[in-house]
Request: fold
Amino acid sequence: MIKQSLQLKIGQQLSMTPQLQQAIRLLQLSTLDLQQEIQAALESNPLLEVSEDGEDTFEPADDDSDAEGSSPLPTSEASPHNESSPTDSDDTDWQPDSLPNDLPVDTDWDNFADTDFNSEPGSHDRDEFLANTRPARESLRDHLLWQMNLMPLSERDRLIALSLVDAIDPRGFLASPMSDIHEGLQTELDSLEADEIEAVLHQIQNLDPPGIGARDLRECLLIQLRQLPESTRWRSQAIGVVADHLALISNQDLRGLTRVTGLEETELAGVMHLLRSLTPAPGDALADDDVEYIIPDVFVRKESQRWRVELNPDIAPRIRINTQYAALIRRADNSDDNTYLRNNLQEARWFLKSLRSRNETLLRVASCIVEHQQGFLEHGDEAMKPMVLADISTQLELHESTVSRATTRKYMHTPRGIFELKYFFSSHVSTSEGGECSATAIRAIIRKLVGEENPRKPLSDSRITDLLEKQGIQVARRTVAKYRESLSIPSSSDRKRLV
Reply:
């Protein structure tokens, strides 16, 4: 028989407050997501407002009507300070009460009136109109259908052409076998012959871009060559080489091509130059290649022989608590309006503190990264030092997950370009002198060796391994092959040039 009873237990566990959850969430947001989050807070909380530059900060003495003002973004030298940051549930030493009450907002958004958040009447409709009037990029299928509608086709041929266009993949090749297209059209067209589909395909292959609708690379190159003017130099020789000896071209077999074609080296050089001007994937010309612009979160520059790190002041608007609304709050009033203002005031305070916490953590992590990777900033990838999340978390006394959140989708603007913060983290390999070398540095050395190699005698992975060993870097051949593939560098046989 089961007997019910009551028992008391004493224990400890980490509890994530809503304020801590908010700080963690803001830390892991990208720049774009942070801007959207701030705008949502401005729209939902009447106690928050955009602070104009040059306004004096007003701080009432009453704690219940406290208002935080704006302040410039923090900056740091290459040596970061060692303060804890409230950004992660695993960082048990931090408590919400450790944040100051009079915390200023350290974000700024220049030219606020010209952004999508402009409060000018009609500005939203204007921006929406401008966004809707931007021309949409034409797809490959739409481009082919537009040309097909200009062709004098019968209804029967038009249906065949439509099926062929639908079978062309984004690279411009006919993805479905002709037999499958024939079988699919037989239910709609009576007495359909394969020759009819072939004839319509030839008309499709005459459309723009050149080489469209080919069934393989050989046919794609031949279509482009035959569309060139007959007066094009080396055109006829190139057609013969592609039609009969494409395998030798793929294998970079110079001697074999010279032997079977009877062409001299200078003639073969002209043929290869013509072939390199062709497009192996004609559909890529109409691919969706919209540029994605990156807004850096951190700027790094050198001043007086020291690297200076500062947050980007343009990534978010400078916001503060509305002093007029805050002054309306009465301490002893429990009315609905007063309670509403009190609740929004508390939420506004925590939101501002979370923003400050996010920026401080991001600045500390970025400063620590710059301190470790000054060699990269001075000399490039080959001077990159091995570094993992644990190195930063130990130095800053943060949890690794906090560092991971602070470096994900965050970008640093340096004199050498814009890099994601995670780019500076890499594994290491041992050197002959007992030291360590970054995997990023090894990749840079491999890229340099390949760039300086003899095109006729490219370096094999084994040879690259030997050259690295002479520099004191001990890596296996398979590791070199892995790094080479990650750099999108072909094998030595594929890199061998005919001329």
